[in-house]
Amino acid sequence: MEHDEREADQASRGGKVGTSYSLANPIDLHEVKRAGFDCIELTWQPLDLFDPAVKARCDEVVKLAARLNLEIWSLHIPFGTDWDPSSLDPGIRDQVADRVRRVLEYARAWGIRTAVYHPSWEPVPDAERAMRLDAARHTLGMLAREATAIGIRLAAECLPRTCLGHSASEMAYLTAECPELGVCCDVNHLFKETPQQFIERLGDRIVTTHISDNDGTDEKHWMPGEGVIEWQEVLRALDRIGYRGAIMHEVRKPEPVRMMENWRRLAGGRTT
Question: How sure is the predictor about 1, in pLDDT bands with cuts at 50, 70 and 90?
Answer without folding.
Answer: very low
